[in-house]
Amino acid sequence: MKGSSATRAAERFFKERRVKVHFVDLSQRPMSKGEIGRFVQEFGLEALIDTQTKAYRDSHLEYLRVTEEGLLEKIAAEPRLLKLPPVRSGNLLSVGQAEAEWKKWVSGT
């Protein structure tokens, strides 16, 4: 999401290191279920959801029993439920502000 401070921090991190990025505004083009599935396999579904956001509170997910498939559909429909930013570099994935991880990617270690 363009307005997210975490997303701006990630963009700044890569720009400062002259790493070319392809930014996708999730409010304009949400992630596909398959792409979300890649992140779920890596981190688990709970790690992808930002329980501190207004979108999470408005969805009432803390009170609802939702299947994993139902939760994936909710995330696909409402990307503001995600911890931002989800970052993919080839087969490497991160969620949230993962600067330590990004430094490993950039340095090649």
From TrEMBL:
Membrane-crossing residue ranges in chain numbering: none
Per the record, the domain of life is Bacteria
InterPro entries for the chain: Arsenate_reductase-like, Thioredoxin-like_sf
Pfam families membership: ArsC
Q: Which family does it belong to?
A: Belongs to the ArsC family.
Protein's UniProt name:
Regulatory protein Spx
Task: Tell me which species this is from.
Answer: Calidithermus terrae
- Gene behind the chain: spxA
